[in-house]
## 1
Amino acid sequence: MTANADPATAPLIELSHVSKWFGNFQALKDVSLTVQTGERIVICGPSGSGKSTLIRCINRLEEHQAGTIRVNGVELTHNLKRIDEVRRDVGMVFQQFNLFPHLTVLENCTLAPIWVRKMPKAAAEKAAMEYLDRVHIADQAKKYPGQLSGGQQQRAAIARSLCMTPKIMLFDEPTSALDPEMIAEVLEVMVDLAEGGMTMICVTHEMAFARKVADCIIFMADGEIVERAPPSAFFENPREERTKKFLSQILEH
Amino acid sequence: MARTSTVSAKPPRGAGPIAWMRDNLFSSPFNTALTLAALGLLWITVPPFINWAFINAVWSGETRDVCMAPETGACWAYIAARFDQIVYGFYEKAERWRADAVFIIGAIGIFWLATPGLRAKRAIGAFMLIAYPVISYVLLSGGLFGLDVVPSAKWGGLLLTLIVAVTGIVASLPLGILLALGRRSKLPVVRILCIGFIEFVRGVPLITILFMASNLLPLFLPEGLVFDKLLRALVAVALFSAAYMAEVVRGGLQAVPQGQYEAAASLGLGYWRMMGLIILPQALKTVMPSIVNTFIGLFKDTSLVSIIGFSDLLGIIQKGNADPEWSTPVTATTGYLFAAAIFWAFCFSMSRYSAWLERNVAGGKAGAGKT
């Protein structure tokens, strides 16, 4: 379709001059961003800065209104079929977990592989149990989400996404709804995932996590990318005034 | 009440029937007055009713004379004499085994589907939805396999009531779901059509729609294209209840959190799988009481087909009430009481079943799962 469709060198995600409005409010202002295969990116910024909107545009839970977004070589347009294809390769983890309450944890994990990837049930369950084991909740597989703690639910949600063997994982404030004592168990799983080479974009305020795994940190404010830097430079030597202010607020406590 | 002085882990509470009555029936002067008023009301209504319906009732007899004595209670002899008609209408006596077969297959099928733990639900469900209506139609109307033709005008009684009610119930849920989805569709044409249909049907009484189906439709349609009158009534009932069902289902769809839609979408499920696997199971569970409420309303509304000339359960009893052969002072009252009892038995069963289902369906809302 276009020149940069060569999969070997093309970025996995490419946003170019993306803008998005909610009514008259401009949530994203001319955002451009490329993510290479295997890159781990952390997005932070004050609330209302457009971080969530940005990653929700990547699997088109939000529609952008200007600019282009390509994911895995496919441009996101109104073509619903292609969007579903993109979504199958892009896992998403939500702040509120969004597990399916009427299905067991195992069924949550096998639903999409069985119905979308057409995997045989037995194979899907075997794979799901492996992922559940990887997030340390294999023993909860037969329970319903309502019977699990928040941290367990979020790990189940991560396993659910992994069952689709995604090329990209998006995390939308995955620890913000958790009680403090449960944050570590979720972050541990995310670190494990990052070290396994998964391409990840995480919206989070967990700066220790960012420092540990991120290849680069993006600071957003008012719908714009203010600063993009590797963790060391970002924390030790932020260039922008707004970044410095944000960091001083968030790292104080 | 002996109560030990040790500190109990549970809040102190009286036990035994007397303590219960003191706590619940006579806890305050107002509560006591209410209790006494209710007891008084029961005293002046229940014993006379029991006298009339059971103690002074006439249970057997061949003619109306047995019920002619003054002070006679309910004339159950009349119901016994007309029982076949109440069940089958004017269906030929020699052919009633066909209606029985339809009843029995239906009862077994419903029992099978409604009882948890029985296997092959999917196969039985498919059979009941696809094969059973066809089998029932062929059995009841005949004309094939050497069965004599029995025109639908002769079907009646409980048989007809169940045909109309079950058709309405079975057709209204899927139609209602489609209408509800259509009403929330992003496609303007689909949305406007669905809103138009729902709002039109909801704004018109069922009886009007039945009249239109039975009297008006034949005027519009070319000769020869007029369907069987019963079929028209069935379609009318199904469409009517579908509109109500659509609004019930829409309420359920709105109750499903946005995050569920997003999670399903983010897995690439696509619209129909998202709806069928994620959204509708939750939405329908939420509104199960309202769905059953609509079913119950529909079951009772079927009695309106008697106004367009069908002899359903109520219609056949009304006809019997007017029959001089059994004309007694208590015939009509007995007939109506019997009709009420049958309607109540069916509707109460539905209500109990749904209550049981609500308690026992797996999963449930966050934190309310089975342990």
## 2
Amino acid sequence: MGIRTSRVKHIEITSIIFSGMFNIGDSGIAQPRSKAIAIQQPFAVFSNKTDETFAQFPLFRMKPRWNLSNPKEVHLKTTNHKNTINVQDINITGISQSGITQIGNLDIIDSESRIKHIRKLPGTNR
Amino acid sequence: MNLEVHNWDLNVQNVQVKVVTSSSVFLIGDNEEITLSSFFDTPPESYIIGSVVPLAAV
């Protein structure tokens, strides 16, 4: 794919966390991965023994099931008569969890993010 | 399938985005192949009631 020149006048991004990606210009391949365990509990427990590990939860082992029963062959032909990208003003509050923001070409994107939510509530198991 | 793309100037005036998260993409430009996957669980798998770590275990 052709090379393009990106010109950005003003861009404002507040935060980029958890393998987020921001890029001005062309790139070939982006392959961010992000795994997280989010625990919500009514009080703070400061103990160095971490009881939750990624291995415990099947969520982190599952494979995405794409149904590519009959994938179509696509022949792409790109011609850049003019190869400039002009951006005046962009405002983004947050890029997170394998999020990608790109001003310019990005050929191949293969992104994955996994979040295990755990809410620990006091009370009795009825 | 044949796809022919002719690019001239690409001008973007103003964009406001709150959040780009969990394997999502905000792209101004060309692309060939995108594969995005996001896994998360919903209750009740994500609820634990009762077996909460007692405070003394610090």
